[in-house]
Amino acid sequence: MGRRSYGQFCGLARALDVVGDRWSLLVVRELLVGPARYGELREALTGVATNLLAERLRALEASGVIERRLDRRRRCTVYALTEWGEGLRDPVEGLIRWSTPLVAAGRGDDTFQGAWLVVALQALAGRRTAARPLAVGVEAADAQLTVRLDETGVSVTLGFDPRPATVLKAEPQVVLGLASGALTVPEVIASGTLEGDPRKLEAVFANLTPPADPVTAG
Amino acid sequence: MGRRSYGQFCGLARALDVVGDRWSLLVVRELLVGPARYGELREALTGVATNLLAERLRALEASGVIERRLDRRRRCTVYALTEWGEGLRDPVEGLIRWSTPLVAAGRGDDTFQGAWLVVALQALAGRRTAARPLAVGVEAADAQLTVRLDETGVSVTLGFDPRPATVLKAEPQVVLGLASGALTVPEVIASGTLEGDPRKLEAVFANLTPPADPVTAG
DNA sequence: CCGCATCCTCATGGATACTG
DNA sequence: CAGTATCCATGAGGATGCGG
Predict the structure, then answer these.
(1) Do A29 and B18 touch (CB under 8 A)?
(2) CA–CA distance, A118 with A124 (Å, rounded to integer)
(3) pTM, full prediction
(4) SS3 call for B130
């Protein structure tokens, strides 16, 4: 039954009444990547108790943030964000951008999954402006990504299937694919900074050598 | 001591490890208005237990989100956001924008304080673009605000002192002050919509009659 | 198997009293 | 005024069960 309401006529308090419960925003993060089954969510959110996940899903559905859908291809029910729930992408990305110092501190013993890179890199690279450069401290391992650069920004799509959960290995190694060809970028994201406008980012990649197995952009 | 870490190498999870605890983001919201004393926070966050508030303040200070300062004028220690903590304005405003349907649902029995209007109106009016019109559902009572309109957006400052907490009355009645003169706007924000660009907003106010006690813009 | 529901234990939140 | 100490209620976490 979730947590009690703050009882405040305030947008933030009302928002937290809906998505402020533990695990709730992480469920949203998973669904921002795409619809997912119950078991996939359970696997992705390492450490969540099944009763908690079930309760949160029920609450989020009742609030209109998520909805159950029928996946015809997989012949199962999946959870997906509603249109309103999709609107959480903006504040979630804001929190991710704010947290860069925490992420740059290193991985430690934390778990790390490929799907998280999707939302994270969209948040970090997708909104960059010259006025607000960003220091990226994300590690990556055995992940293939496709990054597209244009005037409007940077879009990131995965070169691997985020479902079921892709658990990444320890050593940071990112494979980035550009329209001009894929490039191996070891530890670029891990230790370096992606600052300034997309042009700069492209220039950084241009100095690196292409990998053996290039990823072509869609 | 707060909640356990999610143990995930993910920006959102790390962010929630810091500000995901109950009351934490509401403390941040209060400090986004300005530095505040312990008692002021306790009064503003109606319903928070003193031990919880003390624990959250300790944790947020340890995380580097807030800091204690000496208020020379008032001869007391106040809590204030650090520079990094100020960065939470962006995701907090995002959550407030996302929550407009929840706020538009009406006030109900929830408490309502003037200081909350500062952050809320900045979030709702400050970032509006023609591409993303916003429906505002905030009620207000006996609050005097100063709203400035220009090409870059809308800035909102209070015409009353947010500290100590200003508890607003039930009947919605907003006093908005423009550079061209202050205007009484009963229930405009409560029931109406502030959509489109700032010009439209100004046009809405132009049709209303000035109040007895105008608030001049800074 | 998958998708939950139940049960149990214990950490955490909430209300009140109390203290420097 | 600014917290700390205490006690109780509640939610989180883990294991397990159970129907489809």
Answers:
(1) no
(2) 10
(3) 0.74
(4) coil
Q: Give tens-digit pLDDT for A112-146.
A: 776 776 677 667 665 444 344 333 333 343 444 44
At B185, give phi and psi (nearest 5°).
-130, 75
Give the Cα separation of B66 and B78 in Å (integer): 10
A61/A54 Cα distance (integer angstroms)? 11
- Give me the CATH code for the A116-204 domain, please: 3.30.1050.10
pLDDT of A10 reads 83
Q: What is the DSSP letter of B62?
A: H
Neighbours of A50 (CB within 10 A): 10
Q: Is the pLDDT of residue A55 over 60?
A: yes
B197 φ, ψ (degrees, to nearest 5): -95, 170
Please say whether the structural domain A11-87 has been given the CATH code 3.40.50.720. no
* Per-residue buried b or exposed e for A88-99, using 16+ beta carbons within 10 Å of the residue's own CB: bbbbbbbbbbbb
CA B71 / C1′ D13 distance in Å: 43
Q: What are phi and psi of A175, to 5 degrees?
A: -110, 115
Each of the 218 residues of chain B gets a pLDDT tens digit; together they read 567 899 988 889 999 999 999 999 999 999 998 899 999 999 889 889 999 999 999 999 999 999 999 988 888 999 999 999 999 999 999 998 888 778 766 667 888 776 776 677 667 655 444 344 333 333 344 444 444 443 344 444 454 555 655 444 332 233 333 222 233 333 333 333 333 333 344 443 333 333 323 232 22
Do residue A11 and residue B88 have CB atoms under 8 angstroms apart? no
Contacting residues of A for B48, CB less than 8 Å apart: none
Residue with tokens 């969510």, as numbered in its chain: A41
Residues B109, A2, B138: CA angle, nearest 5 degrees: 35
Nearest in space to B139 (alpha carbons), one of B116, B165, B163, B164: B116
Burial (0-12, 13-18, 19+ Cβ within 10 Å), A106: exposed
Neighbours of B208 (CB within 10 A): 13
Q: How far is the CA of B51 from the C1' of C17 (A)?
A: 12
Domain ranges of chain A: 11-87, 116-204
> Which parts of chain A fold into alpha helices (H)?
11-19, 24-33, 38-44, 50-63, 83-86, 89-98, 100-104, 114-125, 188-191, 198-206
Q: Enumerate residues 145 to 204 of chain A having a beta carbon within 8 A of any beta carbon in chain B.
A: none
